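Friendly challenge for the regulars: who can give me the structure tokens for this chain first? No prize, just bragging rights.
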Amino acid sequence: MIPVNVPRLGARERELVLECLETSWISGRGPYVSRFEAEFARYCGARYGVSTPTGTTALHLALAALGLGPGDEVIMPALTIISCAFAIVYTGARPVLVDSDPLTGNLDPAQVEARITPRTRAIMPVHLYGHPVDMDPLLEIARRHNLAVVEDAAEAHGALYRGRVVGGLGTIGCFSFYANKLITTGEGGMVVTSDEALAGRADRLKELAHIPGRRFLHDEIGFNYQMTNLQAALGLAQLERIEEFITKKRWMADLYRELLADVPGLLLPSEAPWARSVYWMYAVRVTPEAGLSRDQVMSGLRERGVDTRTFFTPMHQQPVFQRRGWFAGERYPVAEELAQTGFYLPSGLAITEEQIQTVCAAVKDVMGR
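First reply, four minutes later:
Bragging rights claimed.
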């Protein structure tokens, strides 16, 4: 079975992790933590980085540092992983949904302003599957309405929007370093920002919110959201290779595009002229011309030894929110269509040319080419 994703790890990662073991710096207080925070923030064009144990905790920490709470609203895409909505809910705020752009699958900026209410505090664009959101219109809307922009760049390390690295474009950006991401620490996350006060608050909250200068004395609720030195060492080694990883991802996408261009009923991912996608996953869609459903295509590929994954399920179709009575009667037709027809092919950094050729041969076999 050709897996959907396998990370690429090497000698440098082993070297730095072994150094942590040999020096016994394995907790959240080791020297690699601050180095990784600083170097990753610098890569994103931000002044400060605050590491966390997961991407979800990075989102929660960012929203908590902004002071969100009950009665507040955050505008977010209907189509994304549910951790984006969960992070909002953890603060007591409510997610407000926007439909997708039909070309990129990202939040559609043209629909955002109509969703703003007096309770809106932030906009959360998600750079889905490695392709940047069209950020300039969102930043202008946020400026006019005095809203924070919380970028979820979990799937888009190194993606460029008009030449600028995503994650460092808004008020605060969030990343995941899960094993299937371009940079991995196994599990892990990062908040980046150029706002000194916001970074300081996030840093304080992530470590139980001790009163400055008075350890073990607390005047507000904090979290235990620390990345270990072991994770940070792995992340630093990976960061050294990020341009290599991006080149590999774009090579992968080019080869898939070349080999699958003539398959009717298969819509390949597009790239906006103002973007550099990093193709976290090579995300395709099945159209009516195929004469097969998305699930039939995926089943056929699995029979031929190719693993795949569906697109995310939209937030308004999630049972956990339906039971709360949220999003009742709301429809997001583009997000719904993407969720019903989209899936992604094996896309990991360890993928080989031979594996891509095998995957494409299987796709053509299933789809009658």
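Residues 78 and 97 are 5 Å apart (CA to CA). The chain has a mean pLDDT of 97. Your move, everyone else.
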